[in-house]
Amino acid sequence: MPNTGEKPGKGRYRCTKCGQVVVFDNASDTLPPCPKCNNAEFEKVGQEEKMDLLKTNFEDWVGKKPDSESLNTVKKNFLFYFKKVIGIIPFIDQVVALWLMLNDKEYPLIKKGICVFALLYFIMPVDLIPDTIPVAGFLDDAGIISGAIAIYNKDIIEYSANAGNWLKENGFK
Ligand SMILES: [Zn+2]
């Protein structure tokens, strides 16, 4: 089990006492004492568990700058996963609107937290499940995506308006 003062590498670590999760982007970072309860003992959070945590922590991502690990994961994997599911899922325009927002350099990074969160949640099954994906598996995704859209409210309008064009330009329509 990783302890305070050690360098456990990239990942998420949960305090064994209070459950607070610490995110590590940098392999050379030293694990601090728990920021909440000062405990020194942590456990690493696994991939599937990570997804559950993401879901329960939805609110935590609102109005926050996304961590670079999550941002890079989305940027690297989005198109690959998008191509696989485009014919199956009904909320494509919403997903594209979030993707366009993510890639807009004019839109402040500090406000992109929930955008990255929603897209991360959307692409995550890419590592976890095989090629044939039951539609029921998307119910969660749909909830998260529309939740994010609702939070962005007016900010998302211009990206939604451009979603159709983006789909055409990229040969999806
Ligand atoms: Zn703690």
Structure write-up:
By secondary structure, this protein is mainly α. The chain has two domains: 1-45, no CATH class; 58-169. It contains seven helices and three strands, in the order E-E-E-H-H-H-H-H-H-H. The chain has helices spanning 47-56, 68-85, 92-103, 113-123, 125-128, 139-152, 157-169, and strands at residues 11-15, 21-24, 42-44. A three-stranded antiparallel beta sheet has the order 2-1-3, with no helix packed on it. A hairpin with a 5-residue loop joins strand 1 (11-15) and strand 2. Helix 3 (92-103) crosses helix 7 (157-169) and helix 4 (113-123) packs antiparallel against helix 6 (139-152). The protein starts with 10 loop residues before the first strand and ends with a helix. Mean pLDDT is 82; it is low at 126-139. Zinc ion binds next to loops.
Short note summarizing the structure:
This protein is mainly α and 173 residues long. It has helices spanning 47-56, 68-85, 92-103, 113-123, 125-128, 139-152, 157-169; strands at 11-15, 21-24, 42-44. It folds into 2 domains: 1-45, no CATH class; 58-169.
How are the secondary structure elements laid out?
Elements: E1 11-15, E2 21-24, E3 42-44, H1 47-56, H2 68-85, H3 92-103, H4 113-123, H5 125-128, H6 139-152, H7 157-169
Antiparallel strand pairs: 1-2, 1-3
Helix pairs in contact: 2-4, 3-4, 3-7, 4-6
Bound molecules: zinc ion.
The site of zinc ion has 8 residues, from loops.
Characteristics:
single chain, 173 residues, mainly alpha, 2 domains, three-stranded antiparallel β-sheet, 7 helices, elongated, binds zinc ion
